[in-house]
């Protein structure tokens, strides 16, 4: 993380758009992007809450280290990374055509990598949609569904075709659940196959004489 931060020009009054793009890239790379939009969870279960707080503090620290000292007064009272991010956006965010174009481009170019977590991917997708909505650009539900479907990797092709072949697209919340269920099913199957492969490899690595000796021992009992 320190190496990535060293390449980012610290935030000032004049470079927010560039800084934000780079900061988002760093946080995505380090699996902390979600803390820019996640609301603080309930205190129970404690283990999950404590884990979230630790990661949120790390995300806040990442942001603070990439902000010029003269600008830190803006975020000194922010309790979470989400609070800090929203404060910076409300202070520096441009609402002009360039900002709208960049957000729309980011949304349309968003592609999920094969093997990555689809829940994080969906979260990123709706992050851009929410930002566009805040700039008075509303993407209707069917178009949002199609954007989401076509952002999935190639191994979701059959799933995508099955959804598109219906008379009507499912509601967005329903589609989101179906995508997550499909991904979870594939993940479970992959883990199961890996487990069987491991057992097979272990069996091959054990000399046949071991099984023969075991069988002879059992017969002699």
UniProtKB/TrEMBL annotation:
Domain of life, source organism: Eukaryota
Protein name: Retrovirus-related Pol polyprotein from transposon TNT 1-94
Species in which this protein is naturally found: Araneus ventricosus (Orbweaver spider)
A Pfam family per the record: Retrotran_gag_2
């Amino acid at each position: 993380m320190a190496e990535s931060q060293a390449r980012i020009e610290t935030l000032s009054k004049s470079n927010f758009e560039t800084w934000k793009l780079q900061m988002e890239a760093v946080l995505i790379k380090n699996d902390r992007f979600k803390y820019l939009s996640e609301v603080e969870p309930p205190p129970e279960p404690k283990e999950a809450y404590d884990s979230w707080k630790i990661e949120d503090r790390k995300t806040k620290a990442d942001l603070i280290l990439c902000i010029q000292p003269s600008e830190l007064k803006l975020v000194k009272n922010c309790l979470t990374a989400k609070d800090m991010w929203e404060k910076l956006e409300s202070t520096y965010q441009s609402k002009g055509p360039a900002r709208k174009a960049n957000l729309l481009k980011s949304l349309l170019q968003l592609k999920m990598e094969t093997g990555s977590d689809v829940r994080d991917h969906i979260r990123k997708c709706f992050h851009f949609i929410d930002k566009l909505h805040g700039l008075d650009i509303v993407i209707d539900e069917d178009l949002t569904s199609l954007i989401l479907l076509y952002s999935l990797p190639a191994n979701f092709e059959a799933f995508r075709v099955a959804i598109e072949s219906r008379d009507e697209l499912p509601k967005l919340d329903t589609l989101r659940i179906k995508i997550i269920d499909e991904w979870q099913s594939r993940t479970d199957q992959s883990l199961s196959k890996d487990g069987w492969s491991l057992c097979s490899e272990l069996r091959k690595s054990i000399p046949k004489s071991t099984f023969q000796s075991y069988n002879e021992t059992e017969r002699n009992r």
